[in-house]
Amino acid sequence: MAVRKLYNYWISRDRTGFYSALALLFILFYIIGTFMANYGAPVLGARFQLAGFVCFVVLVVVYFVHKNLNAYYRFLDMFKDTDHLPQKQIAYVNSFCMTVFLIAAVIGIVVMAYAMEPLWQAIADWFANRPVIEVREAPQEFIPQPTQSAAPNFQEIFGEVEDPGPPPVWVSVLNAVAEIGGIVIVIALFFYAIRKCAGKMWDFVTRPRHFDEDEKIYLKPTLDILMHIAPPEADETQQKKGLKYFLSYEARIRRYYKKQILTGRKQQKCAGSPGVWAAPNELERGAGLDDATLHRLYEKARYSHMECTEEDWRILETRPETPAAP
Staple 322 to which of 153, 238, 291, 293, CB 3.0 to 4.6 Å? Predict the structure, then answer.
């Protein structure tokens, strides 16, 4: 079961980047073998060339098989809800056509490789047999060199220079600290560069590549709706948490409003809790609360993007009490 899941996962996506990287590696093997064969190691170079060529041919076959299986997988996935789909017949026809194509491709690659060998040799011989233009250097004219005067004896001029002696201890310590700091900086920059390169490679490997052009166009709005457009309640739940929000004036106003609504509903002898769908006007009407200042500040705390201030809280505390409607 695990092997089948791995097989389905592998053929369900296009792996062109992975196969391209392997193809470049095998081509590099062949080039290294060519250099080794021309510069002192013909036996080992021939082995590298053979290994690079054989691995490249096998990789081409595997790549064609993967492309065929991926196309077959996507075709069946489009018609997964269709009844009486002749999957066996489609698989037989696909296998026969792919076998013929692979045989022709392998024969074509091998024949082309051996046919190109004389051509490359002819090109190399043509470059080697090109006439070389000899460039003769013009005779250099004799230029008399100026006579060098004897170096002045500074000891006779300035007298004997005393030996300064060893440097102070703080100079040696500062030099050691500077060397250690330089080594630490170089190592940190090295690991930072490795981390950035590894991150770029990981992003390239894990980047989704299984969408075709139609899916990119028509599924993008749906993906944006699912990932980026969330209801305000979800954003509020994710953002407004923690002790900082609990102590803010916005949370205080909302708690005070909730207390007034519950008190009013209790005085009005309303049964049950208010509905979650109720708007502030409906809550206040059910609780018999008629307070324009409290209503305005609650809407600011609940719906506005502006933060509530200490002045808003003072206005709420110092306002005249409004009795509940009978």
Answer: 291
Per-residue tokens: 133: 């233009």
- Does the model's pTM come out above 0.90? no
Angle between helical axes of 310-318 and 292-303 (0-180°, round to 10): 150
Say which amino acid occupies 179: E
b (16+ CB within 10 A) / e for 292-308: eebbebbebbeeeeeeb
Give the per-residue pLDDT at 35.
83
DSSP state of 79: T
C-alpha dist (Å) from residue 84 to 73, 76, 81, 95: 17, 12, 10, 20
Mean pLDDT of the chain: 77
Q: How many CB atoms lie within 10 A of CB 94?
A: 15
- Taking residues 54-67, report their average pLDDT: 88
- The pLDDT of residue 261 is above 80: yes
Mean pLDDT of 140-147: 64
Residue 89 φ then ψ, to 5°: -65, -40
Dihedral sign from CA coordinates of 49, 52, 58, 59: negative
* Residue 101 one-letter amino acid: F
